[in-house]
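Hey team,

Filing this mostly as a record. A colleague (T.K.) asked me to run one chain through the structure pipeline before their review meeting, and I want the input and output archived in the tracker in case anyone asks later how it was produced. No errors, nothing strange. Just documentation.

Input sequence:
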Amino acid sequence: MRSLIARCILLFFPAVVTLGAAAQSGYKVVSVADGGTISGAIKWTGPVPRQLDFPITKDPQICAPDGSKTTSLERLIVGPEGGVANTIVYLKNISAGKAMQLPEQRRHLDQRRCHYVPHILLVPQNAELQMKSSDATLHTIHMDGAATYNLPFPFPNQISARAMATPGLVNLRCNGGHVWMNAEMMVVPHPYYSVTDESGRFEFTNVPPGTYQIVAWHEGWTLAGKEQAYDVLTERSVQRPVFTEPKTWEKSVTVNANQPSTVNFAIGNK
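Output structure:
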């Protein structure tokens, strides 16, 4: 078993792609005088779709110790009051403002009971993503998009870190046979990003006065089909779920000095 895991490690590390120089975002950190706030919520409208589940086809004693046969793909979480969790909200056209302040927990990724935790990550450009696995099985983190890595985690609680040099979206998947594992990471060039919880709420503070475009981004909640994938441990072909494209909504918001602004989004299948 250990020799097979070691062979998998050798397969993975050559696949790591060295990223180029950091992209220039043009954002400047300035002292914000008389800044305003933007707050609001993302709410679901209409009937809530059935939760997307997927069969647990590997390591059930680790992935589902309660005996469950399926697990949630975590694509759409609607709270009791209709708030939509895991929606990224951000200001699109801001060029200057406060220094980077993002939730620390969104920059640390765990692989726990065969899920990526948290499901949505926010990492500042040029900062490190800290990663580990709490599970006693081989997991992998395969990234594509603004970052390209293929990292094995054969042993529990060993931390690995990688700097995220390029802003943009990164898709996370597992090549270790746990095909339902999925997450999204946004590498961000400025601090005016937020991820909603089950209340659907978000807030930006110390926003310089001005007019901005505010965007709500959701990874999407519809299953498009399945694709063939490869389990590096068993060396067998497996089927991985494929999802439809992410969804975005956009509005204009004007921020006045020392004043609150409110922006709400209603999203759904229509």
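Quick notes for T.K.: The two ends are 50 Å apart (CA to CA). Confidence is low (pLDDT under 50) at residues 1-24.
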